[in-house]
Amino acid sequence: MNNNNLFFEIGGFPVVSGCIDGTHIEIKNPGGENAEVFRNRKGWMSLNIQVIAGPRCEILDIVIRWPGSAHDSRIFNNSAVRLRFEQELLTGLLLGDSTYQQTHYLFTPVLNSATRAQNLYNNAHIRTRNVVERTFEIWKSRFRCLATCLQYKLRNVVRIIAATAVLHNIAILRGEHVQEDFVDRVVDGPPVAVIPARGNAIRAAFIQRHFNI
After folding, report:
1. Are 39 and 31 in contact (CB under 8 A)?
2. Would you call 58 exposed, middle or buried from its count of C-beta atoms within 10 A (0-12, 13-18, 19+)?
3. CA–CA gap between residue 107 and residue 4 (Å, rounded)
4. Can you give the C-alpha Rg of the chain in angstroms?
5. Dihedrals φ, ψ of 100, to 5°?
6. pLDDT of res. 117
7. Contact at 8 Å (CB) between 7 and 93?
8. What pLDDT, in 10s, does the model give residues 27-43?
9. What confidence tens digit (pLDDT) does each residue in 143-162 have?
10. CB 53 within 8 A of CB 135
11. 107 burial level (CB within 10 Å; 0-12, 13-18, 19+)
12. Strands (DSSP E) along 88-129, which ranges?
């Protein structure tokens, strides 16, 4: 069964290819004149890691190069995966929270939903997008070093995070389970203030087609 079908079984949201979010991994102060860019909105030093999760809580794509002060939407807008969606080299939909901009391939919740169809859409969106939150919980429960401050040079921190992502996927493929008792330290940025009219129209048409029942 492909990822679209597996995601649909989770929340009833059609043609989903992945769920996207950022998670912060704490690092020691890297020093130097640009050190403060690593301080996130909560006041501690971190890397903001972009992950696209699959329906089995596997990591389909990861970006490990942005400091903690970087907004999730900025990371995505400068990512290779965004370019591949724009060029239609990747198909299906990404689901993201309201820190991202609604597009024809990245779908976000309806803020202040007012109709039954919008509520159904939001409920399906939340249930499906919860996969990426569970991915963070499982990944960080499996590798406890990610839940503490990584006391290494920055280049080695990047290598550690990348290695744990690969090992996490191997464990998923092998069916290895882990106790999900880690609660992610959320450092969300503010919602995207303005959704372009085209993005609104695309989402409205999608809701009308799939959730107006």
Report:
1. no
2. buried
3. 15
4. 17
5. -100, 165
6. 97
7. no
8. 999 998 999 999 999 99
9. 999 999 999 999 999 999 99
10. yes
11. buried
12. 93-95, 106-107
